[in-house]
Amino acid sequence: MKIALITDPHLESDTQRFPGLDPLARVDMALEAVKQQVPDADLLVLLGDLTDTCSVGSYQAVRERLTALGMPTRVLVGNHDDRQSISSAWPDLPVDENGFLQSSMITDNLALLFLDTHEPGTHAGHYCAARQSWLAAELARAGDRPSFLFMHHQPGFVGTRVDDSRLQQHEDLARIIKREGNVRQIICGHTHMTVAGAWRGIAWTSLQATHVQVGLDFPERPRRYYSGPAHIGVMLIDGNGDSAVHFYDFLQPYPPFQTV
Ligand SMILES: [Fe+2]
Q1: Å from CA of 130 to ligand 1 middle
Q2: What is the pLDDT of residues 122-174, one digit of tens each?
Q3: What is the 46 CA–ligand 1 centroid distance (Å)?
Q4: In what helix (H) or strand (E) does residue 114 lie, and over which residues does it extend?
Q5: Residue ranges of the domains in the chain?
Q6: Ligand 1 midpoint to CA 68 (Å)
Q7: Strand 111-114 relative to strand 147-151: parallel, antiparallel, unpaired?
Q8: 223-230: which pairs have CB atoms within 8 A and are 24 or more residues apart?
Q9: Cα 255 to middle of ligand 1, angstroms
Q10: How far is the CA of 191 from the centre of ligand 1 (A)?
């Protein structure tokens, strides 16, 4: 399976804070990169923080573009998003029995689960008991299939200021994952950084935003934002449930070497 990944477009962001940055143009560039690099992807996952204003129009702008791409798509809800607005702009997004934007794709040999870690009024990730019950049931349904979680907020530590807003109930998540025993990897947005790590023995990876990047803001360093690189990700999962995640900077001006 081949999965295209895009995260954190932050449409309608503050133009005074980030002068010259056009988030919607970045989305177009990212989708063009998907078309060029992985036109045969089986799925595109947008990992949240679609817009800073939560206007229905901004969600519709993303939806129109993804519809035009014509690729099966799953959309996660991030801390900057609004569940109501996203659902009214995108009524066909799958929800769980409690109205959370959670869904799963279970095939013959693997399971993909798309989690909703949004909590109104905070930038931190949350995963309440109702959402945890859904996940436990879906992982049980996946059985011995290698399973992959997609969620906006990272469960593991990064070592930078983004740790303040990591998934707060990560110990609960760890208990569910340990009990079911089938999760192989977790893919996240939110950090605006390329990070690979292991959390409770599970590989997790986040990719850079299409919007601004966060520098290495370890606690002793100031936070700085950078205009690039800006990534799409390409995740490959083979028949054994082994995976590789590639990153492609769609802003890159670098000419390829002409090799023979
Ligand atoms: Fe976020």
Answers
A1: 22
A2: 999 999 999 999 999 999 999 999 999 999 999 999 999 999 999 999 999 99
A3: 12
A4: strand 111-114
A5: 2-249
A6: 25
A7: parallel
A8: 223/161, 225/18, 227/18, 227/20, 227/21, 230/26, 230/29, 230/30
A9: 32
A10: 7
C-alpha of residue 160 to centroid of ligand 1, in Å: 14
The structural architecture, per CATH, of the domain 2-249 is 4-Layer Sandwich (3.60)
- pTM equals 0.97
Separation of CA 144 and ligand 1 centre (Å): 31
pLDDT band at 199 (very low <50, low <70, confident <90, very high): very high
Res 260 pLDDT > 80: no
CA of 167 to the centre of ligand 1 (A): 11
Q: pLDDT for 233-249, tens place per residue?
A: 999 999 999 999 999 99
Residues paired with 112 in a beta bridge:
105, 148
